[in-house]
Amino acid sequence: MDSTSQSDSKAFSESDKLLDDPILQNKSKHLKNWQSSRSAVSVMQNTKAYHMHLTVLSDQKANIVIAASSIIISVFFSQLSRFDGLLLYALLIITVFTTCALLFAILSVSPVMNKAQTKMNPSSPKFNPLFFGHYSDIDIETYTKHMTDILKDQDKLYEAMILDLYQMGVVLKDQKFKYLNWSYRLFFIGILLGLIMFLAALLLG
After folding, report:
1. In 10 A of CB 53, how many CB atoms?
2. CB 172 within 8 A of CB 54
C-alpha cells in the first residue's frame, strides 16, 4: 500500500510539473484562442445567413403584393365602364391604395445606391471591403492592398465582418422591411375600405 501511494503521489507531482510547463501552457492558450475565433466566425456566418434568409423572405412577400396589385389594377381599367356610383368609388379606392402598395413593394425590392454609398474612401471607418458598392469604384491595387492588410490582422478581419453584418441589418430595417410594411398596410386598408363601400352599395342599391 505504501509503495502504491508513493508511486501515485509521484505520478501526480509529475503531471503537475507538466501542467506548469510554459510550452504546454502556450499551446493551451493558442488552442483556446483558436476555439474562440472559430466560435466568433460561426456566430457571424450564422447571422449573415439569417440576414440573407430575411432578405429573400422580404423579396418574396413584396413579389406577392406586386402580383396582386397588378391584377387589381388591370381589372379596374378593364371593368371601368361597367360600374357607376358607389361601386365605381369602391373600385377606385381599392385601385388607388393597391397602386400605392405596388410602388412601396417595388421600392422594397429595388436596390438603392446613392453616391454617398458608392463613392466611399477606403480610409473611411464606414468603408466596407466586403460590399461591392464600396470597393467597385476603387482600383484593384488599392483594394488588394486594403484586403491584404485586413486578412493579416484578425481584429481588422472581425471588424470588417461586423461592419458588413451591421450594414446588412440597416438595409433590411430602413429599406426592405420599412417599405414592405407600408406596402402591406396600404394594400390591407385599400381592400378593407373597398369591401365596405361595396357592401354599402349593395345594401343601398
Report:
1. 10
2. yes
CA distance 200 to 70: 25
- pLDDT, one tens digit per residue, over 113-137 is 655 555 667 777 777 787 777 777 7
C-alpha cell at 193: 375600405
Which tops the pLDDT comparison, 22 or 189? 189
CA 179 to chain centroid, in Å, comes to 14
Other Cβ atoms less than 10 A from the Cβ of 19: the count is: 10
At a CB cut-off of 8 Å and minimum separation 6, what does 121 contact?
A: 127
The rounded distance, in Å, linking the Cα atoms of 44 and 127 is 19
Say yes or no to pLDDT of 16 above 80: no
pLDDT tens-digit map of 26-58: 544 444 554 567 777 788 888 889 889 999 999
CA distances, 67 to each of 19, 60, 97 (Å): 68, 11, 14
